[in-house]
Design a protein that fits this description.
This protein has one domain: Vaccinia Virus protein VP39 (Rossmann fold, 3-Layer(aba) Sandwich). With 173 residues, the protein is an alpha/beta fold. Strand 3, helix 2 and strand 4 form a beta-alpha-beta unit. The N and C termini lie far apart (34 Å). The longest helix is centred in the N-terminal third of the chain and has 10 residues. The protein is built from 4 helices and 9 strands; from the N terminus they run ββαβαβαββαβββ. Helix content is 20%, strand content 32%. The protein binds S-adenosyl-L-homocysteine (SAH). The site of S-adenosyl-L-homocysteine has 24 residues, from strand 2, helix 2 and strand 4.
Length: 173
C-alpha cells in the first residue's frame, strides 16, 4: 500500500484528504474505498504473487492498483464508462479494464484464484462463484445498504469477517 500513491486516484480538489483513512467521492455517486477496507478485502484473498485475480467495481482504480502489486494478472470490470476510462489511464498496462456488468464476471479469462468485489450485494453472484478456480477465494460485502459483512467464499464454504459499508453492486440482470 505504500507503493501505490492514493493521491493519484482521488479527484484533484480532494488531494488534501487523499491519505485520510476514509472513503471519498469520485463522482457518478461512487466512492474510492477506505484504505483499511481495501487492505482487509485484499488480505482476505491470501495472495502469494502468482495469481490471476478479478476485481469487480474498478471505480477509481485504486484497489486494482493494489492488487497489481500482489498478483501476476489483474482483470477489473466497471459498469460506468467514464470511471473505467479514467482508471484505465491511471493503471499500469498489465491491468486489464473492461466496461460491463461485473455480476457476470469476465468469463474469457476465468478461472480466477481470487475475486474481489468492492460493492455490496444481497447474495454472491452465481457467475462469480462459477469463475473461481479450485481453492479460489471470492471476497464480497453481503447485506443491506449501509451495513454489510465482508464474506469470503472458498470451495463451497463461507466465512464472515468484518462489518463494512459499500455502495451497491448494481446488476443489469
Ligand atoms: N475499488 C474501487 C471502489 C469503487 S466503488 C476503488 O478502489 O476506487 C464501487 C464501484 O463499483 C463503483 O465504481 C460502481 O460504479 C461499481 N459497480 C457497481 N455495480 C457494478 C457492476 N454490476 N459491475 C461493475 N461495476 C459495478
Amino acid at each position: 500500500m505504500r507503493r501505490v500513491d492514493r493521491a493519484r486516484f482521488v479527484p484533484g480538489e480532494l488531494a488534501a484528504r487523499a491519505y485520510d483513512d476514509a472513503a471519498l467521492p469520485i463522482g457518478h455517486e461512487q466512492t474510492i474505498s477506505q484504505p483499511t477496507m481495501v487492505a482487509l478485502l485484499v488480505d482476505a484473498l491470501e495472495l502469494d504473487g502468482d495469481e490471476r485475480v478479478l476485481d469487480i467495481g474498478t471505480g477509481s482504480g485504486y484497489q486494482a492498483a493494489i492488487l497489481a502489486e500482489l498478483a501476476s494478472e489483474v482483470y477489473t470490470v466497471e459498469r460506468i464508462v467514464a470511471l473505467a476510462e479514467q482508471a484505465r489511464a491511471r493503471l499500469p498496462r498489465s491491468v486489464h479494464v473492461k466496461v460491463g456488468d461485473g455480476t457476470q464476471g469476465w468469463p474469457e479469462h476465468a478461472p480466477y484464484d481470487g475475486i474481489a468485489v468492492a460493492a455490496a450485494a444481497t447474495e454472491p453472484p452465481p457467475a462469480l462463484l462459477e469463475q473461481l478456480a479450485p481453492g479460489g477465494r471470492l471476497v464480497i460485502p453481503i447485506g443491506p445498504p449501509r451495513q454489510q459483512i465482508l464474506h469470503v467464499f472458498r470451495d463451497g464454504t463461507v466465512t464472515k469477517t468484518v462489518p463494512c459499508r459499500f455502495v451497491p453492486l448494481v446488476s443489469d440482470h
